[in-house]
Design brief:
The protein is of the alpha+beta class. The chain has 4 helices and 3 strands; from the N terminus they run βααββαα. The chain has a 3-stranded mixed beta sheet with strand order 1-2-3.
Length: 107
């Protein structure tokens, strides 16, 4: 850790500041018996929205029918131990999609 007087700091401010920034070594400055310290700030990476997300358990099941709403489900509609795969197997034949008609290309 280097030590300089305030006069020397004033004369070489930019050089000494660059040295502290590059090396990370603090610089002691003495002024009338009082010691001051010039240090490089440690940068903490900003936390974005994705980093704040909490991982949650995911259950995959059958897709909802067009008129079905999760708000209308009741707890006793499915057994307590039913998983998404069991529900998908139970409802697999209920909803079938109709094939879409293909458009003819424009000449």
């Amino acid at each position: 850790m280097g030590s300089v007087s305030l006069t020397e700091l004033r004369q070489n401010l930019f050089t000494l500041a660059d040295q502290v920034a590059e090396t990370g070594e603090p610089l002691m400055i003495e002024r009338r018996g009082v010691r001051l310290c010039l240090i490089r700030e440690t940068v903490i990476a900003p936390v974005g929205r994705l980093e704040r997300l909490v991982q949650q358990k995911l259950t995959i099941g059958a897709p909802l029918a067009p008129g079905e709403s999760p708000a209308a489900w009741s707890e006793d509609a499915w057994p307590k131990d039913a998983t998404g795969e069991q529900r998908a197997a139970e409802t697999a034949g209920q909803f079938t999609a109709k094939p879409r008609a293909r458009r003819k290309p424009k000449p």
